[in-house]
């Protein structure tokens, strides 16, 4: 298959590329602004990197889509600090530019695999009705199912939700094209993937990455680990190899089971609060890598507005229902939370070679 990965130079895209190139059946074209994460794949005979900015390159992107068998769209601003600091840019890239990709797929009758987000689900009912729900901490309130769960977002002045909203609207348009039989698609909603090559360390590069990279940086520098609004919010973390295993099954689409389907991809058993994440990462670091280089960092509490700026709001909790991926694709995540964190951290503390001790499931 000729596969076009738009945004294939990013964290998820570089891992998909590596996995696809292990099969002799695929030609992979990656279009991105950057190729730094693709060093292992550059030079491979079935791989081609195309440097470009989708906002100023419409003719070439349309031609690439025309020439592909399947299009995987990963391009987005995917970092909460940007939803708050540049909401219009987030909307323009994640919705307006991505909609053009959808429309090119309609025009040229190409199958589209669109990366959406678990953030479309927003907040839990329990977070709104806390005092009225006697069992508000019951995980059942936070299990999100692709085709049944309603979406609960914050008010407009909490502009963090523009990311979720842009992704949601794109999903709805893709679904509508599907209804008219003008587009064959699959939508993927990832739940907090982590692993080697995610983001960057803020002490080494300007910017405000996702929490895993902030906590890693704190371990390296000894600076405090910041718990936003107390760190009581919870996430389920998915190891990138598990995620890519599912994504590649979706790309290969056995018996067309993924046609016009939406899939959650996540590890429901790997739930943790952000506060506990800080302590767990510190504990793993102390056991595996700490030799007294710096003081171990202390977690401190910081408000969301101080850390991100005005307009920040948050998902309180989100657990994926993965029954659909299990039943249609025979997929099952295999890495527990400790493995997920230890293997992801190993890349940063041991270097790329540090991942060689990670068990390879076949
Ligand atoms: P990422 O930022 O690492 O990857 C996005 C890629 O898009 C980057 O390589 C970036 O250079 C590229 N890009 C951005 N603007 C571009 C432009 N104008 N032209 C060309 N390329 C451009 O993010 P990721 O974590 O790999 O996420 C990939 C997709 O999955 C995104 O759509 C994101 O919203 C979604 N997602 C990811 C997660 C996760 O757990 N990582 C969770 C939910 C949703
Ligand atoms: C992320 C991003 O929106 C996307 O990458 C993606 O769509 C999705 O969620 C995902 O990865 O599945 P979020 O989980 O909120 O959103 O992103 P993080 O920056 O990793 O934050 C997680 C939690 O940690 C948030 O509650 C945040 O407030 C908190 N946080 C962040 C801290 O407590 N300390 C920090 O230093 C940074």
- The share of residues in extended strands comes to 15-25%
Averaging pLDDT over every residue, what do you get? Answer: 96
Bound molecules: nicotinamide-adenine-dinucleotide, uridine-5'-diphosphate-glucuronic acid
What shape does the CA trace take? globular
SS class: alpha/beta
Low-confidence stretches: none
Q: Work out the helix count.
A: 12
Question: Can you offer a commentary on this structure?
Answer:
The protein is an alpha/beta fold and 362 residues long. The protein has one domain: Rossmann fold (3-Layer(aba) Sandwich), CATH 3.40.50.720. Helix content is 38%, strand content 16%. The protein is built from 12 helices and 15 strands. α2 crosses α4 and α7 crosses α9. The longest helix is centred in the first third of the chain and has 22 residues. The site of nicotinamide-adenine-dinucleotide has 23 residues, from α1.
Topology, pairings included?
Layout: E1 2-6, H1 11-22, E2 27-32, E3 47-51, H2 58-67, E4 70-73, H3 80-85, H4 87-108, E5 111-115, H5 125-128, E6 143-144, H6 161-179, E7 185-190, E8 193-194, H7 211-221, E9 225-228, E10 234-236, E11 238-239, H8 240-252, E12 261-265, E13 271-273, H9 274-288, E14 299-302, H10 304-308, E15 319-320, H11 323-329, H12 337-350
Parallel strand pairs: 1-2, 1-4, 2-3, 4-5, 5-7, 6-15, 7-12, 8-11, 9-14
Antiparallel strand pairs: 10-13
Helix pairs in contact: 1-8, 2-4, 4-6, 7-9, 9-12
Bound molecules: nicotinamide-adenine-dinucleotide (NAD) and uridine-5'-diphosphate-glucuronic acid.
